[in-house]
Amino acid sequence: MRKLIRLIGFVITSSVLMNCSSPKSVIMFQSANQRENTLSLPPVYEQTIKVGDNLSIQINTLSTQASALFNSYAPASQSEQGNLPNSSSTGRGYRVDHDGYITIPVIGKVEVNGLTNSLAETLIQDKLKPQFNELSVSVRNQNFRISVLGEVARPGFFPINSEQITLPEALGLAGDITIYGRRTNVMVIREENGHKTFTKIDMTKRDFFRSSYYYLHSNDVVYVEPSKNRLASTDRIYVIAPLIVGTLTSLAIFFTRF
User: Rounded to whole angstroms, how far apart are CA atoms 184 and 26?
Assistant: First the structure.
């Protein structure tokens, strides 16, 4: 009897010890130089408009009727959507056609393919100035979204209304990396010019703040690889579970009979 109890205790203790990770593999943003408290960040990423994008365009003039005409094509405002910062827009918006154009009332077709939102705002405003003296234009891309997969608390697909998000912020949306995730091997999968790139990021080092992958792009996929301990512990569950169940069953039968 005592041998059985000791065996169970040994197996459980061994499993716990084998799952332990060293602090250096878990602590993020470590610095090789203790005096390095300031880092230069890469340029802020600004997405360009592509064929197939759905744009939210708000055009406001002094004429209520004219504003209503333009904005009837725009998606629901954030307040109408419940003011959720990461909720996807529900309205139609302005779709960029296969030639890179959108069609706006009064001015007709406008080529926006390859432009940033700020350049598109300026272009639309310039085309409307002959008809309206006072106006404001706001362009937002409704297609900005990322995916976070692997060893995180809440893996999933996240629309980003702000059109700007960093890798740490994306991991925060997903509930952070679990204790089993490899912080030294976080992969960012990105598609550019018809090619996919697979880049591994070491989140335990501060140097990654200088990386071009610090700011995520639309449709980036972040994958956190599970550690060897995670894989080993999963395998051990299938080995240990029958042993523990069998032992407990034997103990239950023994105490029932005696």
Answer: 9
- The Cα 176–Cα 167 span in angstroms is 11
**What is the enclosing helix (H) or strand (E) of 171?**
helix 167-173
233-246 residue pLDDT tens: 544 555 555 656 66
Q: Which of 46-50, 75-79, 122-126 has the lowest mean pLDDT?
A: 75-79
Give me the residue label for tokens 């272009």.
123
Burial code (b: 16+ CB inside 10 Å, e: under 16) for 95-132 equals ebeeebbbebeeeeebebbebbbeebbebbeeebeeeb
Helix, coil or strand: residue 204:
coil
Dig out the tokens for 140 from the structure: 């937002």
Strand partners, 60: 136
CA–CA distance, 168 with 176 (Å, rounded to integer): 8
Alpha-carbon distance of 236 to 82, in angstroms, equals 46
Predicted confidence band at 83 (pLDDT cuts at 50, 70, 90)? Answer: very low
The DSSP string of 92-133 is --EE--TTSEEEETTTEEEE-TT-BHHHHHHHHHHHHTTT-S
E-only strand ranges, the chain: 54-61, 94-95, 101-104, 108-111, 135-141, 145-150, 156-159, 181-192, 195-201, 221-226
